[in-house]
Amino acid sequence: MSHNPEVKMQSELAPAVQADIIADIARCIKATNSLTILTHQQPDGDAVGSSLGLRLALVKLGKQVQVACPNPVPDKYQFLPEAETILTEVSGQPQVVVAVDADNWSRLGGLEAVIQDANTTILIDHHATNAGGADLDYIDPTAAASAVQIYHLLLALDVVPDADIATCLYCGLATDTGFFTFENTTPEALWIAAELVAAGANPHQIAQQVATRLSLAAAILRGRALASLQTAADGRLVYATLTPRDFALAGADQADTEGIIDTLKSVAGAEVMVLFKADSSGCCHISLRSPSLDVARIAAQLGGGGHQAAAGAEVAGSLPTVTVKVINSIQQALNGKA
Ligand code: 5GP
Ligand code: MN
């Protein structure tokens, strides 16, 4: 890839990159032959794209690399180069483990034990609520996506992204920024996107694959979620619920919920949006969004985490109980803010 010198100049305006920790991680990777990359359960575009982009780069360096995620890659990310290499279980006893985009260890689901058994752990994540705990913690809440951090790491490793790596990282960056419309769309996000497009990522094709197409099951599920729409706090809180029955009738699974919360954002007057997704084991996953209230704090109180404007949590209990609990805590936060 030929670097445009003007784009490079923009990079100097970006928030200070954590050069020391990135250099430490690059040193550790260079000294290692075999690495295992782990990412979070219910993987999104950043989890899949960042892990695959890092894997491809490390393979280019001649490393043996496996990537694992507790859940299979959702269909819409299967187009990513070598997506089929992502495993749902780790093979062997990995010595060097890199966790990507996981805001806490429990987000690794059944793969969490791999961390305990590893010699060296590396954490690359951009969630403000991440408390760290790896041997090498590279946590940067100013990064729009973990893909941004992987990009910086690749520069430190002297890997020039090829078209496949660029496609993976662009997918992560685009999906975590809502295709460059969310609050985290910084100058840095945009100049790295420009670099990735220059390296061969195709924004139109990636958007077509990820954002424009919806499976029939996902479309039906979205309809059921919208039909359940309710408001509280004089319309400042908008929420929708999905029961196990909704999933069954739509023929959908948890991966088909991606994007529904963004539809709730378009309701006029809404300051906080919540999507409750109940599973059949008596647990609810909640997605929270707000342009003005710190939902990462609310999610953290519920045992979850995330970013100021986009967060989530897994809450034990029946849907009605969890709904009341969450709505009360959001109402309190809104009252405090009002
Ligand atoms: P989403 O609502 O799209 O599932 O997630 C929004 C943000 O919150 C993401 O950055 C995600 O990593 C984080 N998040 C979602 N669910 C959980 C959860 O159960 N626990 C934690 N710690 N973070 C979550
Ligand atoms: Mn992310």
Number of helices: 13
What is the percent of helical residues?
Answer: 40-55%
What assembly state would you assign to the polypeptide chains in this entry? single chain
Low-confidence segments, given as residue ranges, are: none
Question: Could you please describe the fold and organization of this structure?
Answer:
- The protein has 338 residues and is an alpha/beta fold.
- 41% of the residues lie in helices and 18% in strands.
- The chain contains 13 helices and 12 strands.
- It has helices at residues 5-11, 19-30, 45-60, 112-117, 146-156, 163-176, 187-198, 203-212, 216-227, 244-250, 260-264, 295-301, 319-337; strands at 34-39, 64-68, 86-87, 96-100, 120-125, 136-139, 230-232, 237-242, 272-278, 283-289, 305-306, 310-316.
- Strands 3-2-1-4-5-6 form a 6-stranded parallel sheet. The chain has a 6-stranded mixed sheet with strand order 7-8-9-10-12-11, sandwiched between helices.
- Strand 4 (96-100), helix 4 and strand 5 (120-125) form a beta-alpha-beta unit.
- Helix 5 runs antiparallel to helix 6.
- The longest helix is centred in the C-terminal third of the chain and has 19 residues, at 319-337.
- It is globular.
- The model has no long low-confidence stretch (mean pLDDT 94).
Describe the protein's topology:
Layout: H1 5-11, H2 19-30, E1 34-39, H3 45-60, E2 64-68, E3 86-87, E4 96-100, H4 112-117, E5 120-125, E6 136-139, H5 146-156, H6 163-176, H7 187-198, H8 203-212, H9 216-227, E7 230-232, E8 237-242, H10 244-250, H11 260-264, E9 272-278, E10 283-289, H12 295-301, E11 305-306, E12 310-316, H13 319-337
Parallel strand pairs: 1-2, 1-4, 2-3, 4-5, 5-6, 8-9
Antiparallel strand pairs: 7-8, 9-10, 10-12, 11-12
Helix pairs in contact: 1-7, 2-5, 3-5, 3-6, 5-6, 6-7, 6-8, 9-10
Bound molecules: guanosine-5'-monophosphate (5GP) and manganese (II) ion.
